């Protein structure tokens, strides 16, 4: 069994990507976000455009992130359960390394497998790039490509997520644990899923699979 898990809104209660844009973006990031939600651009393209509007140094942004961590209950215990049960756990997020990595370090889990957008800082803003498992730059389908890659190991994929960026990959998983907006999206597409509110929920339900 392999677990592919989203980050913002899934591992943490809040969405650090949104908080950073609300606090620091210089420009109409909401219009870009709306274009994404309406399907005009991909989440990868949306993040590239929105984070380019942030000019603050990495250190300031990371300090802001550390002050706004709201970890979903049971996460640390769930990861330990996976490790003890030989369940492979991987975070695959459309979010960015510069804010996800400090969170993992802060909760004492800096070595968790993480695949996410990569950020480069300059005076002109944050440059964002997404790479597929083969190291090619991509502008769409990041989470789905990693799900396909993980599936090549020949085992069941359990998917955990909360939003629109998770939909495409979740539809290809063997089982889905959903929270937030993803619940409604999966219902609309008639995809079977289990709801969860925290990682104690997930652990209880995975024991029954």
3D architecture notes:
By secondary structure, this protein is α/β, with parallel strands linked by helices. The chain has ten helices and eight strands. It has helices at residues 16-24, 29-37, 43-51, 58-66, 75-84, 97-106, 142-151, 167-170, 181-188, 199-207; strands at 2-5, 88-96, 113-122, 125-131, 137-138, 157-161, 175-178, 194-195. An eight-stranded mixed β-sheet has the order 5-4-3-2-1-6-7-8, with helices on both faces. Helix 6 links the parallel strand 2 (88-96) and strand 3 (113-122).
Core attributes:
single chain; 209 residues; alpha/beta; eight-stranded mixed β-sheet; 10 helices; 42% helix; globular
Distance between the termini: 10 Å
Share in β-strands:
15-25%
Mean pLDDT: 96
Q: Helices and strands, in N-to-C order?
A: EHHHHHEHEEEHEHEHEH
Name the structural class.
Answer: alpha/beta
């Amino acid at each position: 069994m392999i677990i592919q898990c989203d980050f913002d809104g899934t591992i943490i209660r809040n969405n650090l990507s949104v908080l950073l844009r609300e606090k620091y973006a210089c420009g109409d990031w909401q219009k870009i976000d709306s274009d994404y939600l309406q399907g005009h651009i991909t989440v990868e393209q949306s993040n590239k455009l929105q984070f380019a509007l942030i000019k603050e140094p990495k250190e300031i942004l990371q300090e802001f992130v550390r002050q706004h961590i709201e970890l979903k209950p049971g996460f640390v215990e769930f990861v330990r359960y996976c490790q003890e049960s030989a369940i492979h756990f991987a975070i695959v997020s459309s979010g960015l390394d510069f804010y996800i990595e400090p969170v993992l370090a802060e909760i004492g889990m800096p070595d968790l497998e993480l695949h996410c957008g990569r950020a480069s800082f300059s005076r002109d803003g944050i440059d964002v790039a997404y790479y597929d498992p083969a190291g090619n730059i991509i502008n769409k389908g990041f989470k789905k490509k990693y799900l396909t890659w993980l599936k090549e190991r020949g085992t069941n994929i359990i998917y955990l997520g909360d939003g629109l960026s998770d939909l495409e990959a979740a539809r290809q998983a063997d089982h889905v644990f959903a929270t937030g907006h993803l619940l409604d999206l999966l219902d609309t597409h008639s995809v079977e899923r289990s709801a969860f509110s925290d990682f104690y929920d997930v652990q209880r339900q995975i024991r029954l699979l």
